[in-house]
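Follow-up to my earlier ticket, as requested here are the two runs.
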Amino acid sequence: MKESKFLGREIIKRAKCPFCGTHVERPQELSTRMPGEMPVGSCSCGAVYACDETGHKLGAAMIEALVFACDMDWDLAWSLLPEDDYLEEVIDHYDYVTHRIIATQFFEGRRVSGALYFIRLHDDVQEVTAEGVTKRIKKPAPTPSEVPRKRSQRRGLSKKEVEELVNDYRVEEILSVTPDDAKMVRNLQRLLYSGDDLARQRAADILGQVSALIAERDPGAVSKLLQRLLTAIDDTAAFTWGAFEAVGEIIRYKPDLFAGYIPQLYKYLAEEARRAQALDALCRISRSRPDLVRKIGSRFITLLTDREPRIRGLAAFLLGLLGISEARMDLENLLEDDNEVALYDQGALERRTVGELASEALGNL
């Protein structure tokens, strides 16, 4: 029965574009300022594609393909709608090793479960992005041998040593060994689950600084870390203490690379249970790059009347950072609000009243 299932079908065939039928090149990793999580490629018809080698990350592949199609313009990508602005198709049973479609899903003892996610922008959008996409696809990433890296002989830190340095906020000592400590990110992630609020905040802060250092030579690794954190947040069964803080700090310390992930925080503003955490992450980012959040600044004005003091306080603080003058009257209404809110920055937690934050925000307008 198994053989009859494939009777009359080509079991192994070359990968073709689903839009024009042209054979496509093997997807490749690119050297870009916004790191691609997956290898990508383009077809002569204008379609682009991302390779999900596992077949279990089609959502991420769709984002990779769409952003690549938009010449790494995340703002443009998030503004487009399927059917209205682009078409999408998925080719299953793709084997990245042989660059072939394996209908049987097994080849030389390996299970083949990969997929190519194709996006084809409509012509009016493609006219704006096509030239940039073509340039990127002709500029492959350097191989490891082409990237010089000096390594010291210093040993890595143990879990206990990392924990002690984080608790004492000795950032420089951690950064000094990060290039040669493969377990540093893992050890810092472990501390995101600390029951101590200050320790957790410091771990997220330092993870952001460590990630910025790692991103200088391997931005893809940090992008994968961001995706894991965001996936943990989306998984309602997961314990997400520290995840929002870490996402905010990673983007804060390397916004030129990871600003494209900011829109993924916006959806949590509509969720009562996660609104404060999303606001906190946006506050962290806006401390260094308020311009990246300012375009939606008016959305935060309504949060000044939220029943939760923490949300009112964070919204006031954020509006001050963004300089949203339309919030002036609403901020003035909070000047007598004496509920306290804890704000973290540079190793310290400071308790401020909502009224104090509103007053400070008014001073920034």
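Run two:
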Amino acid sequence: MSKSKRMNMEIVNPNAAGIDIGSRSHYTAIGQGSGQVKEFGVYAEDHLALIDWLNENEITTVAMEATGNYWQNLFTALQNAGFEVLLANGKFTKNIKGKKTDVLDCQWIQKLHSLGLLSGSFLPDHTTEQLRTYCRHRTNLLDTAASTSKKMSKYLRLMNFRLDVVVNDICGLTGLSIITLICKGENDPHKLAALRHGNCRKSEQEIAKALQSNKRADLLFALKQEFQTYNETQKKIEQCDKMIGRFMNDFFKKNPQLKKLKTTTKSYKRVTKNTPKNIDLNQVAYRYFGGVDLMEIEGVSHSTVLSIMSEIGPQGFKKFQTAKQFASWLRLAPNNKISGGKVLSNKIPKGSNRLKIALRQAANVIGNLKNANLHNFFIRISIRKGRSAAITATARKLAIIIWNMIVNKQEYKPINPYEFLDEKRKRIVKEMQKKIAKFDIQTNEFNSN
């Protein structure tokens, strides 16, 4: 009867602790023994007690699971106390089969961390984190305004005001002027149509035909409420834009060498109503990234640049050693699963973040452009694999280009079609050379009969 063998694993982090984050309490383990687990609350004084307990047991590094946003306060407190803190993705800390408890979870995290089996999640620097708060709040406000706009359109339609038929955007200049007068109680279609802006394609007579009200008081009340919400949201967005502009000015005051940088104006870049007001994002982004002109890339808009600035920042790019690692983090690269030398799957991993969404939106815009270098790449992929695959492939290409521009300070130089064909020929030659070497083909074999 053979004896069971025991495998010893090397302890990488001997003074490690594991914390299971919860909404009401944090379970902390400093070892695998029953007396080495302790529960702490979520208040500031509980954080101090946890830190004292870790110091008493000579803990130097702590791992915790990224659970919602409950980890943030404790993470900051531990970092300020001098601990090395590792934030792990939940999929890497899944426990083994059996009964699941908070005690077992924190011990499992401690065990994995002590053996060096956990990898940390990406976290931006303090400046980028502050900018991200403003920009994400601004995005939420834009979503609220869009939802309110849909509700206003619904109530207008039920009141028989078919404003959505005669104007492209009911929250444009013509639409808002008409809605303002409707909320004041005006029902005369000709007076409402007289507010038509000069850029509106429909005539005043046609607009008047679309504004025949059924005069329902209940729907008018609901419309007034939604219109008030829309106006308040727009004021909050303006305030948020001011805070972003003030924050960037303070940043440039601390870094005067960046304030001297200046790039060319991009008048061809479209400015929409959702673009931050009173902020020249073209110049701000150029200075923020130390002289890298991201707006030179076709398809990259003001919103794309703002997402790059707030989600990762100039220092965040340096945390990825290669452009491929950056694309993989964004989940824009295929996740190859190989077994026995055979590729079982090479699908794009599920999941996305705000930066990935922004790059995919930019890629979709590139697909609608004409006579652009990246558009030609988009079309080639789209013909072979469809538009969805082309958007992902173009978004990955954008990520590679942006990483090289920021980290390696490379200028954006689109490849002309002739250079692309030359590279394609070189790639084909290399593939043929590999096959010749693999099968050990001799050149004299082709000359034989």
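The only thing I checked on run two: The chain has three domains: 16-114, 127-252, 261-407. Let me know what else you need.
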